[in-house]
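Follow-up to my earlier ticket, as requested here are the two runs.
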Amino acid sequence: MPRWLEFILALLALFLVSPLFLVLMLAIVLDSPGWPLFFQRRVGINGQYFWMIKFRKMPSYVPPDGKGITTRNDVRLTRVGRFLERFKLDELPQLINVLLGHMALIGPRPEIPKFTAFYPEQWKIVLSVRPGIIGFSQIKHPHETDLYPPGCVDHEKYYVEHILPAKLKEEIEYVGKKSWLLDLKIFGAVTIALLTKTITVRWLMVHLTHAFMLLSDTLVSVFSLVLAFHLVFQMGLPSAIYPSLKKVLLLSLMIRPAVFFLFGLHRYPISSAITAGYLLTIIKASLYSSLALTTVLMFFEERDLYLSAHITDALLLPAFLTAVRIGYIAIHDSFLASGFFRSLGGALTHLVILALYGMMGFFSFWISHMIRMHQLNIALLIPKLWAVSLAVVAIRTGLALFLWPPRAKTWRSFFGRELFRIAHVSLIGMGLILLVYLFLQDPNYSRLSIFMDTVIFSVLASIVALLWCLPQMSTPSQPAPRRVILLGVGIEAELLLSTLERIDSDAWKILGIVTDIEWKRYSSISGFKIIGTVPDLESLFEVYHPDLIITWEWMTQSDDFPFIQKLCEKHGVDITVSPTVSTLMASGRNLYAPPEKTQD
């Protein structure tokens, strides 16, 4: 390609991508402090050195003379750097090198000096032309990082011995056939390769959860805003409100996803429990997004901000975001417990049973309204009831994830835990149904019918749970659960209780918590009561008859621990001492010692 044409095309490309340049430079600086551009010495035509310009992908404190290869999932890459590397946007500043005459648009990719010391005869041919932004070798492999095998340790050695020879062979082939027509073919082929091999199925699967979480959080924020306006204007939204609400929703779609992304809410794994730290992050992200939204609205000269609606939204949003994540945990645990991921038959059975709960909700809804109105044809004349009934099916099907599969293995656990869970989920469903009526702005709903619907659905769900659990409860060979008392109220106790609550097994029963701090006597942790203090242990043994005491090593340092040990020996109670989190983090010992080999 003629030099004058390359100069014009590079100048035109720089003009077109200049807004993207500014955005990327700002993102790089905000992500990690330092100059957004990176200069690296490369070998150009006839072995002459030049400084190649790239966007900085790594923190500024990373030494420039370190490892000369960027590997797959390189830990040195910043958050923005990973994006630049994947989509090759870090190469855009090389257009300046084209204007300066150091590089061409199409040509062999320039290399750092230490790699040109290998295979000198091949490099002599390759360096007879100016290096380019786009190379012939990128057609087959636009991402060299994907060529390294899993578990590769010495990437530079692998690059020199396996990747570089094939790369040089292709670049020598280009030098021998170089023409402007070939340059156009390379440009088109590399563009197609980048589009088809960058956004791969594997890449999508890795980022699908993050994209889904960000999308769901955005939809939840829209729902929160709309509900807040409906709660403020309980008699129905006036027509004059719609233009303002439309503007608020449009701005929220631009502002709130960006705030959620900056706070990292999208990185929440569906299978994880909600910790206090993550809950605080949700609250902060919600408040900052609400503050940013109202601030932007003020700049748009929105005189009437409907402040009460925005305050209501700021209070609702963190609750909804937390509730959605609790729902994701319920979906994950329900699928895992039912064997959804093990076989196609198990997955289909699970989906059919969830649909059955939805049909039960539909049945209970219409039965309750028919009893209330005494005539079926009157119900058929009310179109809003049909819309509500479809919403009821969706609500009951979704909430069934908290009910299925039932886990009771004894009559006591069925009446004490399973029925309570059914009543709890049914009441949540009743509240969501009331919200549906609020959205439809129908003040003529029947409170008695909604209450009867909740009762009928609870009875039907209890029958289904009983039929499922009955074979397990009639099995006489089930061992009695171990009766456990926790000794200590540290963070380890909270983590253990939250874990046991999610496992929901009948192999143990938490009787309560014993504390060595007197003023915490009447408190509770994760819903479990503190049943006494250390001096009360002997009386507690006589009342609760525990099988096991679980405590932590910081309790062994107290003056009361010898008394606790003697008491456990006296009553035949086992005691387990668990290491603390700080001990596990500070320990340098090999906790797993393989068995010693014995000689025959």
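Run two:
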Amino acid sequence: MTMTHTAITRRVDDLRAWMSRNGLDAFIFPSTDPHCGEYVADHWHTRQWISGFNGSAGTAVVTSRGAALWTDSRYWLAAEQQLQGTPFELIRCSRNVATPQELIAWIAGSIGDKEAAAVGVDAWTNTMESVEELDKAAGSVGMRLVANLDPAGELWADRPPLPANPVHIQTMDRAGRTPADKLADIRAALRQEGADALIVSLLDEIAWTLNLRGTDVHCTPLFVAYMLVMPDKAVLHIDPRKVSPQVKAHLDAAGVEVKPYLPIHTRADITIQYDPAQTNAGIVQALARGHHGDAAPRFVRKPSPITPMKAVKNKQEIEGFRRAMAADGVAMVKFLAGLTPLDSEGPNLNDSEDGVGESASGILTEMGVDRRLTALRAEQPGFQGLSFDTIAAYGPHAAIVHYEATPETDIPLEPHGMMLLDSGAQYLDGTTDITRTIPLGPLTDDERTDYTLVLKGFLRLSMAVFPEGTTGTQLDVLARYALWQHHKNYGHGTGHGVGAFLSVHEGPHQFRMNYMPAPLQAGMTVTVEPGIYIAGSHGCRIENTMLIVEDNATDAPDTGCKAQPPTKWLRLEPLTLCPIYTSPIILSMLTPDERQYLNDYHARVRKALLPLLDDAGHQQWLIAHTQPVA
């Protein structure tokens, strides 16, 4: 979606006229959709429509007198350029979204001292929790919140339609359990919470429950729908054009009825559970109104029981992950071997293809890295696309945690310094997420020290053995300890769950400094990804996707405490298969057990990938880059 600054000004003028007709003094446009998705379909790009800013995160506000856009440091440069000449001012914030208090305070300053000012939001693109927080913030300064209007629905003349792509079945050899079995488990969990129905708006939870996948959402194999789990049936609210006869038969077998995407109604004699932090206010309000004069159902505000179920992978899902990681490892080795061939004195930075991703001198650029690696992944069996937009960040760009190269920021690689490459793919068998920091030539002492500190944090957490019930917060310090001793830290989490051919970021468990109560369990996937980011200089991060498994070691010391109940011990098994560069390491900083773990991991990678490589050069590169460190 492109537009001129004149078009943005016209839209703001039209919006203000619409606000006046509807008695509003301000309207807030978030970056979200009705399904709390990481990626948003074009139909819900209302913040971009009204402001012209196309970054993935930000909040736009228009009042009768002003307009502003909040976004974080990743997008300050792009936002400055895109907002120039429009009515919007840029407000730089440290988070990717503004708080309700910040928004309301700015609105109050913009409209002045106006009694009972009205602030509008679209209830369908804001969670129940966020609407309640905005309402409280507005009320504290004498304003009122109106949450039942959608100006884009009236003013956006060429608004993209809702995606209508067909859904397909995730076969049992990959899914492992039937939808009927999963629905039975969900109903049992609801009964324990005093509920007998569940409204599900998170697309990955719907897809997992029903063993269906789609192509409605960028980088994630999902489809737009709602699901209502009832005591005697489930209802999938979806555009019926997306449901083939085969999918309809699949749903019939599980007792799932198909109805249109909207409206959604239910019975008055049930208690519906929903998560206010993950369910939009519009759907809750619609259910609360009842149907044809019926009384409204009762509600229970609790987290979805599907989230922890989906987090623990079954045997077939785990085997799918292994196949996906092997395919991804082959693509990574081919890419890295082409970038730094065995017989070369330096990196092969020439780009043989014309166009984007190539500098004027024909040297590979950050965008070219993305293009080249994506093409190699596309050669692998079951490839369905990327799992997130590739982060290929060279030199100072690597200090921007979630940097994404654009034609304006794209720079050529040079034969010195480091490139941070964070990428992943969707395969029919599973989802991958991997980060490697790649030395492209001579490094400074600071770069080598930081690389080694990050590696130490990665190794210490990867080596952890811990009792069942431990949370990610309790283990997070292992990844940060070495960095802290050098007065260094990183602001992002250390790890997140990964979906089984689903969302690359999933919960409820995480490795994170702030308290995350979800216990770690065998069968969960989780990433380990510490980093260091030095503004204006460099950044490095190393990441593997791991599987939590039982630790069957028998050499634990006997404490002599026979009355102690047996404990199930867990550890992390690496799923990701790709060498970690050893040339930047300051070996004296690694302990013997850290070196041994790294050597064992490289032996595992070599054994798994060598038979899958049919090119002698790729084989030689793999052997050379998985040699033991002394």
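The only thing I checked on run two: The chain has a mean pLDDT of 93. Let me know what else you need.
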